[in-house]
Amino acid sequence: MIKTTLLFFLTALAEIVGCFLPWLWLKKGASALLLVPAALSLAAFVWLLTLHPAASGRVYAAYGGVYVVTALLWLRWVDGERLSYSDWLGAAVAFCGMLIIVAGWGKA
Prior knowledge:
mainly alpha, 0% strand
């Protein structure tokens, strides 16, 4: 389960970077050259999703929980926003949901 969780975090980071770089270009006037690493990051995101052994719907459902946690950590560390109690609680609930789904892989 640790390997799966780490893979999910890496996947989420690839997705967030792939979306953040075009946002910098469109909203903050950064160079359009950021679209190249953004495309590579999104390609890595898609590839990383294929490395899981479960059916795609289960992978996407479980991944969602880790994405929530990763996005909130990005909000804190990159955007510099303080997280609220509700942010932390929601992240914990989402992460527990991921753990429950992954624990049941292969038992359906």
